[in-house]
Amino acid sequence: MKFEITILGCGSALPVVHRNPTAQLISVENNNYLIDCGEGTQLALRENSAKLQNLSVIFISHLHGDHYLGLMGLLSSMSLLGRQKEVTVVGPPELEEVIRLQMKVSKSYLNYELIFKPTSADDLNLVHEDKKVFVYSFPLKHRVPCTGYKIVEKQRMANIIKSKIDFFKIPVKEIKNIKKGADFITPAGKIIANNRLVKPAPMPRSYAFCSDTIFEPKIVEYIKGVDLLYHEATFLEELRNRAEVTFHSTAKDAATIAKEAQVKRLLLGHYSARYTEIEAFRTEAETIFSPVELAEDNKVFHIESTRQG
Amino acid sequence: MKFEITILGCGSALPVVHRNPTAQLISVENNNYLIDCGEGTQLALRENSAKLQNLSVIFISHLHGDHYLGLMGLLSSMSLLGRQKEVTVVGPPELEEVIRLQMKVSKSYLNYELIFKPTSADDLNLVHEDKKVFVYSFPLKHRVPCTGYKIVEKQRMANIIKSKIDFFKIPVKEIKNIKKGADFITPAGKIIANNRLVKPAPMPRSYAFCSDTIFEPKIVEYIKGVDLLYHEATFLEELRNRAEVTFHSTAKDAATIAKEAQVKRLLLGHYSARYTEIEAFRTEAETIFSPVELAEDNKVFHIESTRQG
């Protein structure tokens, strides 16, 4: 069962060649979500052989151009390519006005229904749920209202061990309950403990996305213990002043949040265009927290399943 | 003296890899103008080593996304890169509202003054003038209000032949008038004809840009005799019905306009994404008019000077 993050853009406000503005494709089994959609995202999706039509929900963190200017083009292309299935866009309330105005001036319509769900940058909010995941928004601290997103896989049922069904002659109607944790009681009244009958379900996996934000300890409670934390690191410590003025973080800030939140892995990105080499971001962050991964365009990060117990 | 057109994007509504949506950089000596600005134009400019800060005026033909969605990102990047010199944007009146709204929601400001000049799709209008060129907008016929643009070089003065200055002992104060066409009268009263003193000035060069439009014979009067005509050719004749329904042209339509307008060369572009090979556009157009050039991303087309007379 796949849970992977494809980096479509790891740059910041000023795009540079080979570093698109922010966009990430999150694939959980066959469900595909997009977080942020900087200029050029539709092409980046194609270069990664991602089918635009498989996207179900698009989450926008905030209305700085490098996080959403690719949205109109993507929505338009999905329509031109014949999409009929609805698309949900989750983002700041003003985004709806921006979309509607641009649709109006182009006298265009979309072949599919566009569902807009406004975010609120006040607290943790459930903004999406489907068969595979819950998605929550939570407040970041930036120059404009900005939310992070946390994608949490739903708890799956345990896998019943097939040979046990035959051995204990378990009737079909009992199987669902056993998968949910029930013991099996034989016709003779003997109790077979659940843990003899099933392989435990994998632990629900989780991913949190924090961009853009100044160092903000309040984030910790929202992202506690996630398997993978993406946290922006626009600057290195040498430019701490610049980070504070622009409401961005340093690699050390990101690592401090990761450590406090006891996440499993930290992924950095949103590097300022001034940095051509990014290895220093890892070096700086690893003085605080490990392991640290570095986002690069077209790189894919997997979150592996682990069994419970 | 340079007059060249760099194709930054030759595609149409659906961007494909190696074919960006419409944008062209027009360089007349050291003056740089942009016509249309589809998504990704700022990166295309950089890939062509064009300095964003050298752009003076941006002309937008109409408000379909593939012609303007790269504008906000470009304006933002010019500011982030420290530009202070004003930028003029010429385009449909509603574009101003789109820009202002996106500036508002991003709580951003530009370091430079943005001057907006609305176009009117009713007739030929002078929309820009500087030391080198006049730029006119003129109506095209599309699904939304849409204008073409014509860039006409200003008439330069003739070049006085240096050896004649010495030979006839021409005083400095006479030189400007001679460049403008005056004869020279020697202190002894002898008339030296102007054409013995100067090399004629080069003919003013001109470029017309027509995208997007259905076949529209009225265009002919606006673009009569230009040195290079860019005319959209979204389809081949085999899809004439599709061209008519979508208010686009075929290669043959474009060639018919070029022939009627007696232009010197025709440049085709805005190919539908369904065409991977474009040579057939030239073949079809050349049954009507020749020579025909094919726009391709990053290709540069030069307009050479010719002397008068």
Given as residue ranges, the uncertain stretches of chain A (5+ residues, pLDDT < 50) are none
What oligomeric state best describes the polypeptide chains here? homodimer
How much of the polypeptide of chain A forms β-strand, as a percent range?
25-35%
What is the share of helical residues of chain A?
25-40%
User: Greatest interface and its residue counts?
Assistant: A-B, 37 and 37 residues
Rg of chain A, Cα atoms, Å = 22 Å
Distance between the termini of chain A: 19 Å
Query: What shape does the CA trace of chain A take?
Result: globular
Q: Report the major sheet of chain A.
A: 7 strands, mixed
Strand order of the largest sheet of chain A: 6-5-4-3-2-1-18
Instruction: Indicate the mean pLDDT of chain A.
Output: 95
What structural category arises from helix and sheet content of chain A?
alpha/beta
Distinct helical segment count of chain A: 11
Order of helices and strands of chain A: EEEHEHHEHEEEEEHHEEHEEHEHHEHEE
Number of strands of chain A: 18
Give a quick summary of the entry:
2 copies of one chain form a homodimer. By secondary structure, chain A is of the alpha/beta class.
Task: Tell me what the structure shows.
2 copies of one chain form a homodimer. Chain A has 309 residues and is of the alpha/beta class. Chain A has 11 helices and 18 strands. Chain A has helices at 41-47, 65-68, 71-80, 94-105, 162-168, 172-180, 194-197, 219-223, 240-246, 251-260, 279-285, and strands at residues 3-9, 23-28, 31-37, 55-59, 87-91, 114-118, 125-129, 133-139, 147-153, 159-160, 184-185, 191-192, 198-199, 206-210, 228-232, 265-269, 292-294, 300-302. In chain A, the strands form 4 sheets. Chain A has a 7-stranded mixed sheet. In chain A, strands 7-8-9-14-15-16-17 form a 7-stranded mixed sheet. Chain A has a two-stranded antiparallel ribbon with strand order 10-13. In chain A, a hairpin with a 2-residue loop joins strand 2 (23-28) and strand 3. The longest helix of chain A is centred in the first third of the chain and has 12 residues, at 94-105. The radius of gyration of chain A is 22 Å and the shape is globular. The two termini of chain A are 19 Å apart. The model of chain A has no long low-confidence stretch (mean pLDDT 95). Chain A binds chain B through residues 13-17, 21, 39-40, 42-43, 46-47, 63-66, 69-70, 72-73, 76-77, 80-81, 92, 94-95, 97-98, 101-102, 105-108, 143-144, and chain B through 13-17, 21, 39-40, 42-43, 46-47, 63-66, 69-70, 72-73, 76-77, 80-81, 92, 94-95, 97-98, 101-102, 105-108, 143-144.
